[in-house]
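Could someone model flavin mononucleotide with this protein?
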Amino acid sequence: MMNTERKIYFLTGIKHSGKSNVGRNAASLIAREMNAVFVDTDDLIVQALPAGYSCIRDFYRREGKDAFMDLEYRTLKQYLSSVKEDLTFIIATGGGACDNTRMVSLMKESGTVLYLCLKEETLLKRIQKKGIPPFLDENDIENSFHTLFISRDREYRHICDFVVPLEDLKSIEHNGQVLASFIVHI
Amino acid sequence: MPGNTFGTSLTITTFGESHGKALGVIIDGLESNFQIDLDDLAFQMSRRRPGGNRLGTKRNEKDEIEILSGMFEGKTTGTPLAILIRNTNQHSDDYSPIADFYRPGHADYTWDKKFGIRDWRGGGRSSGRETAARLAAGAIAMQILRKKGITITAYTTQIGPIKAKVKNLEDISKNLVSCCDNEQAEKMVQLIDETREKKDSIGGIIECVITNVPAGLGEPVFQKTEALLGQAILSLGAVKGIEFGEGFNCVNFTGSEHNDPITKDGFETNRAGGINGGITNGEPIIFRVPVKPTASISLPQRTIGIDGKEQTIVVEGRHDPCICVRIVPVIEAMSALTILSLWYDQNGR
Ligand SMILES: Cc1cc2nc3c(=O)[nH]c(=O)nc-3n(C[C@H](O)[C@H](O)[C@H](O)COP(=O)(O)O)c2cc1C
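Reply:
Sure, complex below.
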């Protein structure tokens, strides 16, 4: 099937909600039907990092949140202005995207914002398995994550165009299918 | 017994489907010589009507009622009172693809399994529209109870995560969500609007208070007041539970904290919610009801077709993002039918 217009879907959600894995999987499924491209904003930011920073975390730690959000915004803006093709773009964003108001406006005006929504317990389990990120309190992970989850979940529900509920204990392939069929039908 | 009749001394039997010719109710066991207030009846019907409130569906149903029997010169005769509500607004075309698949959250799948045939138009008899008939019956019961001094008031206390912070019964009629807290109601309205834009739906909690109920209503053991109110309320689609007084929260008390002390002037507290041992104790009856998010949404959903094949569906149409607003009068109506029936059990009609 030929694409007749450019469609951009932004995947948002709390850390470990599957924006990259599930998003990439969904894009490959959609690509069977029409031309679809998957982009991870983290990859774009890594390429755009100024010299002297080893990784995103290094930049964030040394320059602070505002500088990071500015970089995040400018990187996405530049990418969006560079795309010209009429394709379906699936763009995974960072876990803190909801705090970046300029980026939220940019996403809203350029495409459809999807919130990949998972249960708090599921995300907590994934975080415990994959390593505690610096923004959580090591000594009280459950409570600090609970506070973060409540505020982020509310924020993402608010800023998104649609909520995509993903199943907790299903594989990346399963959730990829769910997301792909959601995107195709919305 | 087939499941279309409810009540003890007073019974209602409802019939009809959402997109059939008509629906209606037969009320049997009413007292005679009661002057029915037809204006009040029409007003009560308008409260449930879709399109009666900006937040509801845009579907406009008229809900005009015809009383076919049981009334003479405006008064009840004590014989079966039959009410007919003709379906005038049947856009069953809006729903035509749903004949081929089962909508998640609806009764499509289970009713098909049970009966092997279903009137898929607008959900048939599992539709919220069936409650129009109960509302008509309940509105008459409510008028009779009012004359006996009993009042029934239901209101929204929560929509999604937003809770009422105060209980001002004067506020109920002043906002679009029948909430007892005008200030929080504004946030609830905003949330419902936002949810509609996202093509999704949301649920909530309704509380109901019945005041001036005399002590002594309720028939042990299978027709205890809680059991009968439970049946009445749980028979409504989208209702997922009921709790009386402190309800599920009772586990957070010890016995010494939870017992309502009795004095010469009555009970000091009302944690029981007006009922002990299944019999009313003279305190207000209080119960709460969780209402699920509307099953009909226009987001893509996964389901199977009647051929058993998995598919993703999108049910376009005029969906109501929150049932709470329209269910409030129906909860009052079912409560009225229950309490009047128990009143007749105890006192005769
Ligand atoms: C007053 C009232 C209005 C309702 N309106 C709707 C509606 O607009 N859309 C919908 O999907 N369900 C509506 N329902 C709920 C359905 O009847 C019910 O959710 C569905 O049949 C299955 O849910 P259950 O498993 O809780 O019975 C309504 C229910 C009531 C009592």
